[in-house]
Amino acid sequence: MKCCFGVDVGGTTVKMGLFGESGKILDKWEIVTRTENKGEAILGDISASILNKMQERQLDKSAVLGVGVGVPAPVTGDGIVTGSANLGWKYKEAKKELESFTGLKTRIENDANVAALGEMWKGGGLGQKNIVMVTLGTGIGGGVVIDGKIVPGAHGSAGEIGHICVNYEETDVCGCGNFGCLEQYASATGIVRLAKKKLAQAEIDTILKKEEVSAKSVFEAVKAGDAAATEVAEQFGRYLGYTLANLAAVVDPAVFVIGGGVSKAGEVLIPFIQKSYLERALFAVKDVKFTLAALGNDAGICGSAKMILGE
């Protein structure tokens, strides 16, 4: 039996999976991400866990096709992580180190790109070869898959949708150091920001005044028919929909897959994004579909495995 490993490195845990050659998940587990001392133990821990799993399952190295890894950072074509604040890395020859530790072929890519590949393979983009995944969490990430292959870019930074500038008049700084990024308006924190601005306006009657404002509470209020929350959702949809319309003119995807914590609000998100998208999209790309991510926490390990099994 031939198999491979899929690894998704996060700031708190490393999710890991063993996959059969057919793509079936044979095993899943996770280990703690030890970020102390500039994350020097992370790659060694991953390698040890893989080798332990091989021993446990009596797998010879000849049976393992390789190890795919997604990391929260830009990754160059030769597997060098140029920097990752979440992991404490500034310059890490990750591919070379993992191959040295394990003796296994290794491929490393940005985690959002890897998740997009996973969703294309087994999730919200199933059956398509050209997709864009947008992850709406504390920030906004993204991944682009064209003709079934990840588009990493020259610097490993393709798909950084959250840092497209959407407001040239913004004076508050984004976490990236720029101003007016999409992340400031359509991420979980961005939605809260929009909601608080709405609440600071003239006296309005809204459910949002009765509880702590969060992206979840905003969309729960939308479901309840709350007018103020609906206006916030429309703002969110406008920023994101217009951005995706611009992106579609460049990469022409068949599907936009919406993931991340905000996507847990469910289908209520889609009409707000799609309405604004259709207002600005080029005629040739107006039939792009919008779906929710389907793999949850497995997207990263699935995409990582798919890199080894063949894009």
From TrEMBL:
PROSITE patterns: ROK. The keyword Chloroplast does not apply. Keywords: ATP-binding, Kinase, Nucleotide-binding, Transferase. One of its GO terms (cellular component) is cytoplasm. It comes from the Bacteria. GO terms for molecular function: ATP binding; glucokinase activity. Its EC number is 2.7.1.2. One of its GO terms (biological process) is glycolytic process. NCBIfam families: ROK_glcA_fam. Belongs to the ROK (NagC/XylR) family. This is Glucokinase. It comes from Faecalicatena contorta.
